[in-house]
Design goal:
heterodimer; A: alpha+beta; Sufe protein. Chain: A; B: alpha/beta; Aspartate Aminotransferase, domain 1; Aspartate Aminotransferase, domain 2; 2 domains; about 35% helix; about 15% strand
Chain lengths: ~150, ~425
């Protein structure tokens, strides 16, 4: 059985206890809501995009430590970045948590590599992915509610 | 319903129940988790483990007695038919039905509720009519009624509950109005463990001529159920919640109702004769058992009921009350823990939330200690909404659980906040 500390790494514990970018930014151009119906996790992501760059971002919602930390680390990772870069991180993050063969590349993912431990806990992959799927939907701006089911 | 033998909380009877002897009957419970610790299975409200006697009965059926039922003239077929119909008699006896034709085999409680909604209730429902459920129903005793209400323009109404998770019956007579066509209520709440006063609800509904379905999925493993004493019109339950296999359950319905109901599904075995001009249907219960049924499942469920019936029930009840009292006390001592569902009448279910920790983190962390509990909304989202929480962690006990397992749960839960920092 995989070790708990691989899942609840220090950076994840820290971001769960003190989430960054929690709340609605002063101004936003995109938003999307997502939920994980089996867990009851709910999140709304607000993004302020200007000239193809994420100027500001925030999230609201309630969820487990993994989903909260993921939203916090995600918002920290993409703020100030071009939308295309955020989408690239989404793809890299997604393959890291779902594909046991994919290496967690610290250069590509930075602190997000902390979520590599989620692979040992298949039931929790959705928790890690929820914020990212919701961001992805917000940037596509199709206004549809995202569900991990 | 003989539930009066429960030991009062706080003054648990000393366990005269030989739990170790019973545990030896359950092969799955003998396993150890990765680090050699014993598995602590506390998700019995989701499904129960199966004793050797059930596993053997299913294995024996397939090894020695398997044939399709009701339609062969050869000996093997008659043997299979006898076993299947014998399972019906066993089931009827277990819940004290007056006639074994009042037992319809279904896939589980969910199918039983849907059958009643579609075949019994829907034809009686008109726009403006009402169906009454309770605030603590499992989704499977909400959605089937919503479907027919939506179709007919009828209205779903709800018996409220209080902060302890007990139904509030003060307004029940007002809720049972001239437009109420059906009452559907859970015997025991899966999310909270509350034992509902269904006998009283039935009496008050019947006083106004309103039929009642009882969802007994969570009651059967903990209470001696007597459908005639309850007086209900329908009682649905699942085999796998009462130490039997999945994919089989039963619907009890009074013969008077079943005989008046149209079929639920069409197919083989439910007909008297078929022509392209028209078909006449078999009498109940065959009318509601279209197609080849889950024969081995029925045999397995009957073996499970036989196993339960052979237990010293008074000792089981005392043991479960003891487990509940111990768990309530041990968990309440964990800092920041709040128990959701504190009804005076409860079975061995303890739902809880932990300050600063989401239920899913609790579930993952205690699993590392080999403790299996359920986390989430338990298919009872209205209950979660009532308590203003997204989810709970839930430990649910069976008679094979022990004091030591409750202690393992409490110490694993106490570790959660350590892990989450």
């Amino acid at each position: 059985m995989p070790e708990l500390r691989e899942l609840y790494q220090q950076v994840i514990v820290d971001h769960n206890r003190n989430p960054r970018h929690r709340g609605r930014p002063a101004h936003h151009t995109h938003e999307a809501a997502g939920d994980n119906p089996l867990c009851g996790d709910r999140i709304t992501v607000f993004v302020d995009v200007e000239g193809g760059v994420i100027r500001d971002i925030g999230f609201e919602g309630a969820g487990c430590a993994i989903s909260t930390a993921s939203a916090s680390l995600m918002t920290s990772a993409v703020v100030g970045k071009p939308v295309a870069e955020a989408e690239r991180l989404f793809t890299a993050f997604h393959s890291m948590v779902v594909d046991p063969a994919a290496p967690a590349d610290p250069r590509a993912l930075g602190k997000l590599a902390a979520f590599a431990g989620v692979r040992g806990f298949p039931a929790r992959v959705k928790c890690a992915n929820l914020a990212w799927h919701t961001l992805h939907a917000a940037l596509r701006a199709d206004g549809e509610r995202v569900s991990t089911e | 319903m003989t539930t009066t033998a429960r030991a009062p909380l706080g003054a648990p009877a000393r366990a005269r129940f030989d739990v170790e002897r019973v545990r030896a009957d359950f092969p799955l419970l003998q396993q150890r988790v990765a680090d050699g610790r014993p598995l602590v299975y506390l998700d019995n409200a989701a499904t129960t483990q199966k004793p050797r006697q059930v596993i053997d009965a299913i294995s024996r059926f397939y090894s020695e007695d398997n044939a399709n039922i009701h339609r062969g003239v050869y000996d093997l077929c008659e043997r299979a038919t006898r076993l299947y119909e014998g399972s019906r008699i066993r089931t009827a006896r277990f819940v004290n039905a007056g006639d074994d034709r009042e037992i319809v085999f279904v896939r589980g409680t969910t199918e039983g509720v849907n059958l009643v909604a579609q075949s019994f209730c829907k034809p009686r429902l008109a726009a403006g009519d009402e169906v009454l459920v309770s605030a603590m129903e499992h989704h499977s005793n909400i959605v089937p009624w919503q479907l027919i209400c939506g179709e007919k323009g009828a209205r779903l109404r709800v018996i409220p509950m209080n902060e302890r998770g007990e139904l509030v019956l003060d307004g029940l007579d007002a809720l049972l109005g001239p437009r109420t066509r059906m009452v559907a209520v859970g015997h025991v709440s899966n999310a909270l463990g509350t034992i509902n006063p269904v006998k009283e609800i039935v009496a008050r509904a019947h006083a106004k001529g309103i039929p009642v379905l009882v969802d007994g999925a969570q009651a059967l493993p903990h209470l001696r159920v007597d459908v005639r004493d309850l007086g209900c019109d329908f009682y649905a339950a699942s085999g796998h919640k009462v130490f039997g296999p999945t994919g089989i359950g039963f619907l009890y319905g009074t013969l008077e109702h079943l005989e008046a109901m149209p079929p639920y599904q069409g197919g083989g075995d439910m007909i008297r004769s078929v022509s392209f001009a028209g078909t006449t249907y078999a009498p109940p219960p065959a009318r509601f058992e279209a197609g080849t049924p889950n024969i081995a499942g029925a045999v397995g469920m009957a073996a499970a009921l036989e196993y339960v019936a052979a237990l010293d029930w008074e000792a089981v009840v005392a043991h479960e009350a003891d487990l509940l009292a111990h768990a309530t006390q041990a968990l309440a001592a964990v800092p920041g823990l709040r128990i959701i569902g504190t009804a005076a009448e409860k079975v061995g279910v303890v739902s809880f939330v932990l300050e600063g920790a989401h239920a899913h983190d609790v579930g993952t962390i205690v699993d590392q200690d080999g403790v299996a509990v359920r986390t989430g909304h338990h298919c009872a989202q209205p209950v979660m909404e009532f308590f203003g929480i997204p989810a709970t962690a839930r430990a649910s006990f069976a008679f094979y659980n022990t004091h030591a397992e409750v202690d393992a749960l409490a110490s694993a839960v106490a570790r959660v906040r350590e892990v989450l920092g």
